[in-house]
């Protein structure tokens, strides 16, 4: 089942349940996926679907941080609910220990040993964890292991 099909089904379910928060988030996700489909000119592949969802998730996480810093804690709970809805459509997220294991294996494979190899390691790790781990987490793990 494609992402748009899942979103349409969940959209109908949220309408029937009168779940306004889920409904608005699913509508935003559906809009983002449809816009991306129009932009690329074909049905989205699973990698493209994950890219759209990851972008939407990142936007919401960034907004939570910005609202918290600006003293607008009243807006954070609704964004956290949106994050939960977006995460339903993404693959299971890797934990820090799992990312550390992948980074260590990649460092051995590419022969990385110093901070100068940061780009090489990141370039090899990111395709492996695409959609499954946040780039900031991967970045911090790679930096800590290359010290």
Tally the helices: what do you get?
A: 7
Uncertain runs are none
Helix content: over 70%
> Kindly, what is the distance between the CA atoms of the first and last residues, rounded to a whole number of angstroms?
44 Å
Largest sheet: none
DSSP E strands, number: 0
**What is the CATH superfamily of the largest domain?**
Uncharacterised protein YqeY/AIM41, N-terminal domain
CATH domain fold name of the largest domain: Hypothetical Protein Yqey, Chain: A, domain1
What would you call the structural class? mainly alpha
What is the CATH architecture assignment of the largest domain?
A: Orthogonal Bundle
Q: Name the average pLDDT.
A: 89
Can I get a quick summary?
The chain is mainly alpha-helical.
Characterization of this structure:
With 147 residues, this protein is mostly helical. The protein is globular. It folds into two domains: 85 residues, Hypothetical Protein Yqey, Chain: A, domain1 (Orthogonal Bundle); 50 residues, Orthogonal Bundle (Arc Repressor Mutant, subunit A), CATH 1.10.10.410. Helix 2 crosses helix 4. 75% of the residues lie in helices and 0% in strands. InterPro entries: Asn/Gln_tRNA_amidoTrase-B-like, GatB_Yqey_C_2, YqeY/Aim41, YqeY/Aim41_N. This is GatB Yqey domain-containing protein. GO terms for molecular function: carbon-nitrogen ligase activity, with glutamine as amido-N-donor. It comes from Liquorilactobacillus aquaticus DSM 21051.
């Amino acid at each position: 089942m494609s992402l748009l099909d899942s979103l349409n089904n969940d959209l109908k379910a949220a309408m029937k349940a009168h779940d306004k928060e889920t409904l608005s988030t699913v509508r935003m996700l559906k809009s983002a996926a449809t816009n991306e489909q129009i932009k690329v000119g074909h049905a989205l592949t699973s990698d493209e679907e994950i890219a759209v969802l990851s972008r939407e998730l990142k936007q919401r996480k960034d907004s939570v941080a910005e609202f918290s810093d600006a003293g607008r804690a009243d807006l954070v709970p609704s964004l956290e609910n949106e994050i939960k809805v977006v995460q339903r459509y993404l693959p299971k997220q890797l934990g820090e220990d799992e990312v550390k294991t992948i980074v260590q294996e990649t460092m051995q494979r590419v022969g990385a040993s110093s901070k100068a190899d940061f780009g090489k390691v990141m370039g090899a790790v990111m395709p492996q964890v695409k959609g499954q781990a946040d780039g900031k987490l991967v970045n911090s793990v790679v930096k800590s292991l290359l010290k």
